[in-house]
Write a structure and sequence with these properties.
The longest helix has 16 residues. By secondary structure, this protein is of the alpha/beta class. Helix 2 links the parallel strand 1 and strand 2.
Length: about 325
Amino acid sequence: MKKFAIVSMAAMMMAAVPAATAFAGDLTFTTGGDQGTYYAFGNVLAGQVTDATDTSVTAITSGGSQANIEALDMGDAELGFVQSDVMAYAYEGTNLFEGMAVQGFSTVADLYMEQVQIVTCDPEIKSVEDLKGKNVSIGAPGSGVYFNAMDILGAYGLSESDITPTYESFGDSADSLQDGKIDAAFITAGAPTTAVTSLSTSKSVYLVSLDDEHVDALIAECPYYSKNTIAADVYGTEEDVTTVAVGAVVIARDDVSEDDVYNFVSTVFENIDAITTAHAKGAELDVEFAASVTAVPYHPGAAKYFAEKGIEVPVK
């Protein structure tokens, strides 16, 4: 009886510990495919935080935005990269998350813009209309690329039935373009993207540009997009490419400790030079942009850091 009482008391004490302490100091950070910007940049960020603080962050590959939100929801990860549009879908229970809202996560920081890149090795594909009847990769299952592709095709009066779709990751899409198995691929990631850069070393790469009229119509319909330019020197294209972009946001489970999230955010924004040396996306880090998300409230740990910088953000 005495032994049982001790065990029961221990169990009660464990149950009384706040959930936030469950992950203190040891966080799994889901990113994206191994040839995408999420994974490469996520590893840099994880390394910085781990080296500079008592919070250990491990970046791992994943299926992309939707998969990352689901991993956080199931408790398989504590941090995740996500497109700003997919984050809104999850929180509101729309599109990818129709009728299945996920709200147990908070915003950590918006880090950079992710361009929707339409990549091809066929110089005859010059516009979105030219994709009609072509073999086109529209993103891996569980990624946000699919809806980006549908939005852009829809803006031009096309649908999934007007193309021959395949559903591949960035790396698989690049391999398929290399082998001539597909004609084009939608890739939503910060440019330059490893998969596209690697492809350009062996084949001529072209990006399809969007015209202003269709960009304006798309943004009017889907305001989470913004107009964006991929400079010619990014991939060595003949001229700058006009496209749309969404934000690349880091999110965290609500029950991750305030200290751990604070360590993550403060380390990232106090070490921009070192991060930029390790990855070009570091040059796009900006505190005000990081605090600009409105669709999902911020984690208290992130809010604490932004408050130190004189920026107030919405908190749950």
